[in-house]
Design a protein that fits this description.
The protein is α/β, with parallel strands linked by helices. It has 2 domains: 174 residues, Rossmann fold; 87 residues, Pantoate--beta-alanine Ligase, Chain: A,domain 2 (2-Layer Sandwich), CATH 3.30.1300. The chain contains 10 helices and 9 strands. The strands form 2 sheets. The chain has a 6-stranded parallel β-sheet, sandwiched between helices. Helix 6 packs across helix 7. The protein is globular and about 55 Å long. The protein binds pantoate. Pantoate binds next to strand 2 and helix 6.
Length: 285
């Protein structure tokens, strides 16, 4: 355990990472938007178990929030985050300003394109979100120069698109995914859970319960129908989508196709808070 050093400029970060590289040390990178919870800390520990040095970035990226989304109210808590990271093996926190990441302004920055998959599901509900997310991940990876970058499986579509970008752009790093961390009540940990009232939190449990119902089903059609019926009838839960996709392509599995495996993805709004979750499903085995 070390107290991580906090750097805010790209120049300071470069100096630090260069000194590690000169000693032949590998670098693991955990990009975050802060408001850290156990899920983030699991990413840090996964990185620390596989690389010599760990950098955690904390940057609420304006480019991945649409008009009317929660950019302004997104929780920001650098002091608390630094405290949480001091209990982990993180070596450095990179907490840049918007100007440091986007010297010409976020609007003037050429964005990465998330392509057709970026227009589905989250991309359909949050236009431009994935282009902005990929843009910042590419920029941060360029600044940190990691050997490995760590992402949570909870954001399945994000993870899919990052893997695709890294492959397409030939970025010299390995993308590592880490299983979703859940509370004792099975709700997936998310920084946005902080927005839920106690009552909304109880309502949100319909999401992991729907995924649990799907796990007990013997076909994709049955899983989709039963999980949808459960979550759509849950009080105070407004379902945006609940689908089963092919994990290799992220395309929806058409009804009647009976895949042996699928990834169930779900997004729903409870009060003013939009949550996502997913579950790998195996059928007929
Ligand atoms: O998952 C997140 O917290 C963000 O989308 C990421 C990957 C840090 C990019 O801003």
């Amino acid at each position: 355990m070390t107290t991580p050093v906090i750097v805010s400029s790209a120049a300071q970060l470069r100096e630090l990472t260069q000194s590690w590289r000169e000693k032949g040390q590998s670098i693991g990178f955990v990009p975050t938007m802060g408001s850290l919870h156990e899920g983030h800390l699991a990413l840090v520990e996964a990185a620390a178990s596989e690389t010599d040095r760990v950098v955690v970035s904390i940057f609420v990226n304006p480019l991945q929030f649409g008009a009317g989304e929660d950019f302004d109210r997104y929780p920001r808590s650098l002091t608390q985050d630094a405290l949480a990271l001091s209990t982990t093996s993180a070596d450095a926190i990179f907490a840049p300003s918007v100007e440091e990441i986007y010297p010409d302004g976020p609007g003037a920055t050429p964005t990465q394109s998330s392509g057709p998959v970026g227009l589905l599901f989250e991309g359909l509900s949050r236009p431009g979100h994935f282009d902005g997310m990929l843009t910042v991940v590419a920029r941060l990876c360029d600044l940190v120069g990691p050997d490995r970058a760590y992402f949570g499986q909870k954001d399945a579509q994000q993870l899919f698109l990052i893997r695709h970008m890294v492959k397409q752009e030939g970025l010299p790093l390995e993308v590592v995914s880490v299983p979703t961390i859940r509370g004792v009540d099975r709700l997936a940990l998310s920084s946005r859970n902080a927005f839920l009232s106690a009552e909304e939190h109880q309502r949100a449990l319909a999401i992991p319960r729907a995924l649990e119902i799907a796990r007990g089903c013997s076909s994709a059609d049955q899983a989709r129908a039963q999980a949808r019926s459960y979550v759509e009838s849950a009080p105070g839960v407004e379902v945006d989508y609940l689908e089963i996709v092919d994990p290799e392509t992220f395309e929806p599995c058409a009804p009647g196709t009976n895949p042996r495996e699928g990834l169930m993805i779900v997004a729903a709004t409870i009060g003013a808070t939009r949550l996502i979750d997913n579950q790998v499903l195996a059928f007929g085995q």
